[in-house]
Amino acid sequence: MNIISLYFPLWVTVDKGGSDILYGVALSSSMILVAISMPLFGTLSDRMGRRIPLLMGLTLLSVICTGLIGISNQLTLGLIFFVLANYGYHAALVPYDALLPRVSRGFSVGKVAGIGVALGYVGAITGIVMVKPFVSEAGRGAAFVPTALLFLLFSLPCFIFIKEEKKAKLTIPRGTLGKEFLQIKETLLDTKKYPGLLPFLIANFLYCDAVNTVIAFMAVYAHQVVGFTDSMIRTLLIISTSFAVVGSLIFGWITHRLGAKRTLVLVLCVWIVGLVVAIISFSPFAFWMVGPLVGIALGGTWVSARALVLDLSPPEKIGVIFGLYTMGGTFGFILGPLVWGGIVLLFEDLGILKYRIAVASFLLFVLAGLDLLKKVPTPADGLFAESSKVIDK
What we know:
disordered C terminus; globular; 16 helices
């Protein structure tokens, strides 16, 4: 929240006078590295049988490089350190997510995962509040070192208290990375066997382009187009995050009542309304509506989309299909920032209108995803429940 959504993009574009494309390229580059190395880290994590060592190494990479952004206080170095820091953060999610079966032993995986998501939203709000005094005193550049130290501090309980069994010496066969990518290709080809799965995965990629980019550039848009101050942006993000918690709960209930596909269609409609309001907002008062709409839609997106993955996947393929679903979101984080930065650069002479055009382009992404989603058959009643039982087991 502090780095991606708030301080780093404004530090680049306002404090250092860099263009949006610089931030877009840095963000996309880090996610390309994640996409390339994700299969390898998954294999490493499985073969080691221990997640904590890999999690610690990648977390420390993110912590150190986040702090170095503030210490260097120079645009080029800051962008390089950001690429490494964001890479470490997202790559660390591979061993982190793989810890879920161990920490949820004896409990429902779904419930434990839900608690984790909720605490993540609480952490986002807490991070903004705790770093605010440093920024108020010394500017946006002062956010990076405290954020890095807080990230390390709140990671320590995981490193210290989660105990794993030691495993025999690690051996990684030659050609592992190539084999992993070959398996991904074969899995993509297999999706044709399951009605609606491939259109859903493509739709997921399209709307993730919009979702991830809006999260990354909301602060820039609010500052440059609507004239929000840093204090107003912080408040907007806190409101958005609070509504994300509410959205998760509401759409979780709606998913149970209406089904995952219908709920995801409804969520994308909320995204469309939110983006339209952002495009036509010419005053701070109107833009305050965007925060709650985006927050509710954000919470609802992950709840309904994950449920739809379960609906569309045969029980024996759930893990593999979830991997493809996650990869779609990752590639959405690659393309989206480049599209935003390219549009802003291309329409540089149009002033702040270039930002409205950029948001309008992502409105088209959501509309395309919604159109594809309509081609996904509504799953048979009861399949989601069966798949959920498999996940919990």
